[in-house]
Amino acid sequence: MRIDVVTIFPGYFDALELSLMGKARDRGLIDLHVHDLRESAHDKHRTVDDTPTGGGAGMVMKPEPWGQAIDGILADAQSAPAAEPLIIFPSPAGDVFTQAMARELATEDHLVFGCGRYEGIDQRVFDEYAERGRVRLVSIGDYVLNGGEVASIAMIEAIGRLLPGVVGNPDSLVEESHESGLLEYPSYTKPAEWRGRRVPDVLLSGNHAAIDAWRHEQSVERTRRVRPDLLGD
Ligand code: ADE
């Protein structure tokens, strides 16, 4: 999968050089390109924001640098034989990102993340690219971040780990929280006793049917307690 990111803080995305995402990039499974929006701003101070038209607090990101940056990515994409890119603008005003959305986005060939800052991006940028192609506003939850960078990293990690070959043992993807609509059961490893706390006997029993039943029960109980909304309760 090709992923382009437009941001005024490219350094945030250094985190994607680490761990599984870094390995996936080294192995060519994820082709990540991070673009500094300021390189598409041409005044002396490389200005990317201005005051809101009509008044109000804060600053709004100007359309011209965004236009140049995204046009450049789309022109580059046109020369490659991949499907039409999907442009995602992280925004607290967007559709809520879920595991189901991560699965859906993991089937795309090319994602472009546009990271807004300040009070947001001039609306005409969304309108321009929605008219020319596919655009989604996506929120990672009901709270406000300072910009789209952290939200993009969260989405890239959630999507990237679903790509074939990224996670070594694909079985580990199946039993996770949210994949079955339930939260994950508690996990234990050795030693069988630590600070007087014993691993539940059933997990040491070797009886796999009993272990599966216990884990399912734990998942249901945890989901009912922590996230009853997932059960429709
Ligand atoms: N930008 C600021 N807050 C955000 C959120 N909750 N989700 C996605 N992008 C954001």
UniProtKB/TrEMBL annotation:
GO MF annotation: an example: tRNA (guanine(37)-N1)-methyltransferase activity
- Which InterPro entries does the record match to this protein? Alpha/beta_knot_MTases, tRNA_m1G_MeTrfase_C_sf, tRNA_m1G_MeTrfase_TrmD, tRNA_m1G_MTases_N, tRNA_MeTrfase_TRMD/TRM10
Which keywords annotate this record?
Cytoplasm, Methyltransferase, S-adenosyl-L-methionine, Transferase, tRNA processing
Q: What enzyme category does the UniProt record give?
A: transferase
The UniProt record lists the tRNA methyltransferase TRMD/TRM10-type domain at 1-231
| Cellular component GO terms, alphabetical | cytosol
- According to its UniProt record, which protein family does this protein belong to? Belongs to the RNA methyltransferase TrmD family.
Q: Which PANTHER family match?
A: TRNA (GUANINE-N(1)-)-METHYLTRANSFERASE
Name of the protein: tRNA (guanine-N(1)-)-methyltransferase
Q: Give the organism the record lists.
A: Leucobacter aridicollis
Name of the coding gene: trmD
